[in-house]
Specification:
Number of domains: 1
Shape: globular
Bound molecules: D-xylitol-5-phosphate, zinc ion
Number of strands: 8
Strand content: 15-25%
Strand order of the largest sheet: 1-8-7-6-5-4-3-2
CATH topology: TIM Barrel
Order of helices and strands: EHEHEHEHEEHEHEHH
Distance between the termini: 13 Å
CATH architecture: Alpha-Beta Barrel
Helix content: 25-40%
CATH class: Alpha Beta
Largest sheet: 8 strands, parallel
Structural class: alpha/beta
Length: 216
């Protein structure tokens, strides 16, 4: 089990993004988590390709891009070009998920599938051996700073069993409401990567908070 942390820049200071990127570069964090929202798939709009491209110029760690958009398959090439290392698409947004995962791989990126809190992990039975990562939403996507949904622990355990049963190498990533209160239990249940936004960037010592999460 790996204990990785991916700070979500959604909670960073957008008037001085370079400073927060530098903090993450120097910290124990593993990836940058970038939340792309289109105002259609989720009731919020965040940032798009030019910002990803700008972040990529400064980031010295892989970009884990979380697409909360409809028709994500239309933008695979564009996100590759902007610097995405791992592209997460929502199960609920992909009619042809198998094809989309193949296209992400063909574009030269790792592929992740993301599940909203209501989507059963069992629906991944026939695709889990194809993906590099499963991103479990522990809040309803669209906003930072929401309360962690407790049922997530059970979902991780179920997913872990499914991954083992299907001989998959997929990592389990958890996103939403992650703090020092739940990080240890999430890793114990089988999570490999924890995304955290507000808890890291609103703390007095963000690099210390990243370290604290990694050692939970
Ligand atoms: C929510 C996003 C998250 C968000 C997490 O839709 O996918 O990545 O930034 O933020 P916190 O850690 O504040 O819940
Ligand atoms: Zn996210």
């Amino acid at each position: 089990m790996s204990k990785m942390v991916a700070p979500s820049l959604l909670a960073a200071d957008f008037s001085n993004l370079a400073k927060d990127i530098d903090m993450v570069n120097r910290s124990d964090a593993d990836w940058f988590h970038l939340d792309i929202m289109d105002g259609v798939f989720v009731p919020n709009i965040s940032f798009g390709l030019p910002v990803v491209e700008a972040i990529n110029k400064l980031a010295r760690k892989p970009l884990d891009v979380h697409l909360m958009i409809v028709s994500p398959e239309k933008y695979i090439g564009a996100f590759k070009k902007a610097g995405a290392h791992l592209l997460n698409v929502h199960y609920e947004a992909c009619t042809h998920l198998h094809r989309t995962i193949e296209e992400i791989h063909q574009a030269g990126m790792k592929a992740g599938v993301t599940l909203n809190p209501h989507t059963s992990v069992t629906l991944l039975e026939d695709i889990v051996d194809m993906v590099d990562l499963v991103l479990i939403m522990s809040v309803n996507p669209g906003f930072g700073g929401q309360t962690f949904i407790e049922n997530t622990y059970t979902r991780i355990e179920k997913l872990k069993n499914l991954i083992q049963k299907r001989n998959s190498n997929a990592l389990i990533e958890v996103d939403g409401g992650v703090t020092d209160k739940n990080a240890g239990k999430l890793y114990n249940c089988g999570a490999d990567v924890l995304v955290s936004g507000s808890f890291i960037f609103k703390s007095d010592d963000p690099a210390g908070t990243i370290r604290q999460l990694k050692t939970s």
